[in-house]
Amino acid sequence: MDGITTSSSFRQRDHLRKDETDRNQKEDEKHLVSNGSLDVRGRIADKRKTGGWKASPFIIVNEAAERLAFYAIAVSMVSYLVLEMHQSLPVAATHVTDWIGAAFVLTLLGAFVADAYLGRFLTIMVFSCIYAVGMVLLTISASIDSLRPPPCVGRVCVPASKNQTAFLYCSLALIALGTGGIKPCVSSFGADQFDETDEKEVYKKYSFFNWFFFAINIGALLGITVLVYVQVQKGYGWGFGIPTVAMFSSIAILAAGIPFYRYQKPMGSAFTRFIQVGVAAVQNHWKGTEVHRETVLFEVDTKESDISGARKLSRTEQYRFLNKAAVITNHEADTTNRWNVCTVKQVEECKSFIRVLPVWASTIALAISFAQLSTFFISQALIMDRKLGSNFLIPAGSIPVFASINALILVPIYEGWMVPILRRQTSHRRGITSLQRMGVGLFVSIFATISAAVVEKRRKDHYPVPFSMSVFWLLPQFFLMGSAEVFTYVGQL
């Protein structure tokens, strides 16, 4: 009898243990992310240990350090090419514009590598190392006399040789490649740290982007003030050497957060999938395929989509022509060949990209205007009176500080004061939508460029003698451009 009682007690205890284990397992599952993100060990990420504001500070500080390095170069390169490499002012401004443009175009390459092969984190690390090598070469170019032409004698300036120019441009090319790989990944990697299905984390993600932008301007502020001043006082070797150290520091800071990050697996090139949708849709259109609301479209039977780590998307009727890519015209054909038939997920992903294109296109004008901060606006400052008091001369490369200071002030004001007021008026959680915020920024940028044009006309008509017009006439255009960036850039993200 005692044996039977003991056996029953054991069974009851095992049952209680099983119930407790099940409860613990369910409790643990509640804290797992739902977007497929993994932790550093390859397991589904736990919200309690990874992501959110545990991981974000490393990304924000890394971005501040990287932007410090980039802006320190961007605002100084025109004067460096003119004063050290003996290029004319228009030629130097053109080369800097081309270099900045190349850095942004190369973001397509960085996005492709991240999506198809390395993932965002590894892409950032690899291209950061390329960036750092470019910074080292630039510092060497500015430090070794044989890599620059001799100083001007009177008005006679010997132009840089082909080898000297090639060495400099090689370093700038590596920096452009590096920033092109980092830029499309770092903000997205930050977004990966927040689970979209968790309302609390979604709200925190909006705040992350504001502070991310704040970090960009902190880096820019230090780059165009402290480092430009160092360049003027100590020379370009020091001026480029310190950003090089900052770049290596940014790599170390990002690496320090490895245990806390959430990682998304590479899901293949989105551009390839978009082309497949187009090819399959055209092929089926030529076959006379018609698509109606009741037409069955192809989708895989699994819970997740066939794109690793991505969830399925529901069918929409917008851009119905593309739905033809998901129609099976030959039931004996291989449905794994995406050049012949695509999934609903793949078609909807392509549609989402098309919907974003007008938003992207609308900001081209702002990008053109913003590029003037490092070229035309600096060229204006170079030939204006930059005296502050009797002893201090403001470096031309530091003039964009007006835009950065405005941005640093405006972000906290917008978050702490304007958003609550707008929220009461619009009932929108963020005060105004992202598109409305971008619209405000684009509208303000119009007045920034008008201001620049008015000041330049006044300089030519009323102050024909160089250095006779105060540089503080440029303050309105920098102030307005900084405001435009605050609204548009954060809305874009």
Automatic annotation (TrEMBL):
Biased composition (Basic and acidic residues): 11-32
Gene Ontology BP annotations: oligopeptide transport
Gene Ontology MF, one: transmembrane transporter activity
Coiled-coil stretches: none
GO cellular component: membrane
Topological relation to the membrane, as annotated: Multi-pass membrane protein
Annotated Gene3D superfamilies: MFS general substrate transporter like domains (1.20.1250.20)
Region spans: Disordered: 1-32
Comp. bias intervals (Polar residues): 1-10
Annotated TM spans: 68-87, 99-118, 125-144, 164-186, 207-230, 236-261, 359-380, 392-414, 435-455, 467-490
Alphabetical list of InterPro entries matching this protein: MFS_trans_sf, POT_fam, PTR2_symporter_CS
Short name of one Pfam family: PTR2
Family statement: Belongs to the major facilitator superfamily. Proton-dependent oligopeptide transporter (POT/PTR) (TC 2.A.17) family.
This protein's name: Major facilitator superfamily (MFS) profile domain-containing protein
Source organism of the structure: Papaver somniferum (Opium poppy)
Organism phylogeny: Eukaryota, Viridiplantae, Streptophyta, Embryophyta, Tracheophyta
